[in-house]
Specification:
Blueprint lengths: L2 E5 L2 E3 L5 E8 L8 E6 L5 E7 L6 E3 L7 E6 L4 E6 L8 E7 L2 E2 L3 E5 L2
Parallel strand pairs: 2-11
Antiparallel strand pairs: 1-3, 3-8, 4-5, 4-9, 5-6, 7-8, 9-10, 9-11
Length: 112
């Protein structure tokens, strides 16, 4: 069955960086676009970024454009989110998503 497992979250100071990973299994990873979505405390889901199947096309929410970079390694069935210049408002649970499938998320906390 489809599994998406996120990792790489943690506590970081403002201005710091983190790299999230999402390991996928149970489907032909290389043929599908993948998304990162986040949920801040007390708020709804917010789309963050999408990468198409071959990694050529990448899209970002305005709130993260220029700071976050999505990438993928189809040989490893993994999608990444490099997050730089982190802000307190980036604090959220970050989820990997494809169609109706979701991982359990990884917590990112940006605080001094």
């Amino acid at each position: 069955q489809v599994q998406l497992v996120e990792s790489g979250g943690g506590l970081v100071q403002p201005g710091g960086s983190l790299r999230l990973s999402c390991a996928a299994s149970g489907f032909t990873f290389s043929t599908y676009s993948m998304n990162w979505v986040r949920q801040a405390p007390g708020k709804g889901l917010e789309w963050v970024s999408t990468i198409n199947n071959d990694g050529v096309n990448r899209y970002y929410a305005d709130s993260v454009k220029g700071r976050f970079t999505i990438s993928r390694d189809n040989a490893k069935n993994t999608v990444y989110l490099q997050m730089n210049s982190l802000k307190p408002e980036d604090t959220a649970v970050y989820y990997c998503n494809y169609f109706s499938y979701w991982g359990r998320g990884t917590q990112v906390t940006v605080s001094s």
